[in-house]
Design brief:
single chain; about 65% helix; globular; 2 helices; mainly alpha
């Protein structure tokens, strides 16, 4: 199954955020993941970005 443009953009954004040292938490010590690594962090960031995007879409739809 091919990735859509949106899925690919999210993957790229998550990789960039991870490599830049950005995290959804203020400190990596607040992360509740047992094993923190590139794949885990990228998935975590990706799910966080999706949640943020859905929230913004709901706000726009309710206006």
């Amino acid at each position: 199954m091919k990735d859509t443009v949106e899925k690919r953009a999210l993957k790229i954004a998550a990789k960039i955020m991870y490599r830049a040292g950005l995290c959804r938490y203020d400190s990596p010590l607040k992360c509740r993941k047992a094993l923190v690594g590139a794949e885990t962090c990228e998935r975590c960031i990706r799910s966080w970005l999706i949640g943020k995007a859905r929230g913004e879409l709901k706000k726009e739809a309710s206006k």
